[in-house]
């Protein structure tokens, strides 16, 4: 009997989805567009994260060393650099390497070098930082620590970039939390109200079922299934539209943005983000539906 | 047996829809509640199947105080009842068949049994030929008969009907009452709210006269 009733309820949910297809389509679209807004925000935020990573990829710090350091001292400094979690790799550049690199990069200044009696370039350690390093304070702390070692005479890095990157990252995070929070709240509010209106339009049906002896579970299950399907379809619609936007946006809109194009590129969601979006749709649809039905089950 | 003890119902102060109603309807009786419009017939019926909760008083159905049944268990009471609502309360997006089948589907009967019972119920109200029509395509009287078929389809032990013949011609009204009588003869208690004096005189075993929410008289056939 339970399977018979379950089958009946699944059929009822299917029938209702089809019978009220106009209203349900509107619900799906509203859920879809709400999640699309979140999806677009995620895609933009993905891009900023990507840009941040690109910037940090180009980040290098040079520690200039005393020319008279012996091998064990060099090795000690290297080991201290490698001990930091920020460091991806370290390359030793000898005075000779630095000189030849300079000659290669600035051939027009070769004459000046030829007039010098000795090699003016000190040896150095070039440190490449890890991709995900975005904290300026951590980098500064690391630099100060290495600079304090005996034999390290100077340090050079592109502080401008690091500062810009650091503030950009803070802005992205702050805007992300603020806008993301508002968007998620707004979407949940919109969606639960759409579902509520949908249920309200069928309050007579709920009353009739109650009055002919249906249990609360019997009444809730079709609504639960319908809410599930509407939420699922809505979130899939949002992913589909987002996919199209990602394909089309750079072609039709991106070109008019000029230099800002890089910032406003939509970068595809990760699988995990996509799944969270779908899960969000399903949970919102189902919960919105079930909680709305409960209001009419008190007769 | 249905027993009401000092039942009062107030929707809005200071008017009482029901005032101190006490009555007893024995199992198997064919009972009418009559009175002018606004006398409280519908309120009284709604209280018996607990769509409404009285402001004061107690109601026993077969010895069970129905006001003490928790909301989530009220379906047990309602499955023993068949109810014809004054406003029919049909599902307009479902066919006549599905409307009548609802009480059986919620009770978990097999499709075959549901088909058999629905067909029989619709045949009793002479609507079996419109089984797959939708209620909005039916006349007012036909919609009323769908509501009656739904009320009788699960062979209820108590049948409550609020103005079940209000929109039917006298001949059909008589036929519907005969169906109720037949169900009554099978053992069901039938309570009908009506102001059709002709039908009441012809069918009623017990009649309660209501006016302004009070029972002003009672008549019982010997």
Describe the structure.
The complex is a heterodimer of chains A (299) and B (222). Chain A has 299 residues and is an alpha+beta fold. Chain A folds into 2 domains: 1-54 and 163-297, no CATH class; 60-157, Alpha-Beta Plaits. Helices cover 70% and strands 8% of the residues of chain A. Chain A has 10 helices and 4 strands. Chain A has helices spanning 2-19, 21-57, 71-82, 95-105, 110-115, 136-147, 159-200, 203-211, 216-252, 271-294, and strands spanning 60-65, 87-93, 124-129, 152-157. In chain A, strands 2-3-1-4 form a 4-stranded antiparallel beta sheet. Chain A starts with a helix and ends in a 5-residue tail after the last helix. The model of chain A has no long low-confidence stretch (mean pLDDT 81). By secondary structure, chain B is of the alpha/beta class. Chain B has one domain (2-220): 3-Layer(aba) Sandwich (Rossmann fold). Helices cover 33% and strands 25% of the residues of chain B. Chain B has helices at 41-48, 74-78, 96-106, 111-124, 140-152, 170-185, 197-203; strands spanning 2-9, 18-25, 30-34, 56-61, 64-65, 81-84, 158-162, 189-193, 206-211, 214-220. In chain B, strands 6-7-8-3-9-10 form a 6-stranded mixed beta sheet, with helices on both faces. In chain B, a hairpin with a 2-residue loop joins strand 9 and strand 10. In chain B, helix 4 packs across helix 5. The two termini of chain B are 18 Å apart. The model of chain B has no long low-confidence stretch (mean pLDDT 91). Chain A: It is found in: Cell membrane. Chain A: Pfam families: FtsX, FtsX_ECD. Chain A: Residues 178-298 form the ABC3 transporter permease C-terminal domain.
């Amino acid at each position: 009997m339970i399977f018979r009733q379950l089958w009946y309820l699944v059929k009822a949910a299917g029938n209702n989805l089809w019978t009220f297809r106009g209203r349900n389509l509107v619900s799906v679209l509203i859920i879809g567009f709400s999640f699309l807004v979140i999806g677009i925000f995620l895609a933009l935020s993905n891009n900023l994260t990507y840009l941040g990573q690109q910037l940090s990829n180009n980040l290098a710090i040079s520690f200039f060393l005393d020319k008279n350091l012996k091998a064990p001292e060099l090795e000690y400094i290297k080991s201290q650099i490698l001990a930091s979690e920020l460091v991806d790799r370290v390359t030793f550049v000898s005075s000779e390497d630095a000189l030849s690199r300079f000659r290669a990069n600035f051939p027009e200044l070769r004459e000046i070098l030829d007039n010098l009696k000795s090699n003016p370039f000190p040896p150095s350690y070039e440190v490449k930082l890890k991709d995900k390093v975005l904290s300026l304070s951590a980098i500064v702390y690391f630099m100060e620590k290495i600079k304090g070692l005996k034999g390290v005479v100077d340090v050079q890095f592109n502080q401008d970039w690091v500062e810009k990157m650091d503030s950009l990252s803070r802005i992205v995070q702050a805007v992300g939390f603020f806008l993301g929070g508002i968007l998620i709240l707004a979407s949940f509010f919109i969606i639960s109200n759409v579902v509520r209106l949908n249920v309200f339009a069928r309050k007579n049906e709920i009353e009739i079922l109650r009055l002919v002896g249906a249990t609360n579970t019997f009444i809730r299950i079709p609504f639960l299934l319908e809410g599930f399907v509407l939420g699922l379809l809505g979130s899939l619609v949002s992913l589909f539209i987002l996919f199209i936007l990602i394909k089309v946006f750079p072609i039709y809109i991106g070109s008019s943005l000029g230099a800002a194009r890089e910032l406003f590129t939509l970068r595809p969601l990760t699988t995990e983000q996509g799944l969270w979006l779908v899960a969000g749709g399903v949970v919102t649809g189902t919960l919105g539906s079930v909680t709305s039905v409960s209001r009419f089950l008190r007769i | 047996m249905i027993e009401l003890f000092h039942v009062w119902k107030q929707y809005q102060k200071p008017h009482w829809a029901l005032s101190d109603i006490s009555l007893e309807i024995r199992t198997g009786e064919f009972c009418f509640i009559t009175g002018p419009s606004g006398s409280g017939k519908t309120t009284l019926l709604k209280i018996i199947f607990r769509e409404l909760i009285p402001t004061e008083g107690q109601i026993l159905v077969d010895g069970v105080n129905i006001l003490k049944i928790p909301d989530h268990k009220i379906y047990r009471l309602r499955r023993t009842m068949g109810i014809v609502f004054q406003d029919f309360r049909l599902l307009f997006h479902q066919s006549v068949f599905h409307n009548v089948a609802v009480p059986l589907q919620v009770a978990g009967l097999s499709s075959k049994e549901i088909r058999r019972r629905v067909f029989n119920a619709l045949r009793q109200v002479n609507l079996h030929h419109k089984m797959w029509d939708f209620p909005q395509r039916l006349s007012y009287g036909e919609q009323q008969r769908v509501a009656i078929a739904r009320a009788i389809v699960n062979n209820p032990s108590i049948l409550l009907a609020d103005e079940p013949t209000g929109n039917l011609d006298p001949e059909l009204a008589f036929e519907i009452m005969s169906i109720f009588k037949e169900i009554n003869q099978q053992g069901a208690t039938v309570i009908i709210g009506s102001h059709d004096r002709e039908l009441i005189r012809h069918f009623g075993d017990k009649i309660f006269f209501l006016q302004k929410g009070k029972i002003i008289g009672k008549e019982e056939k010997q």
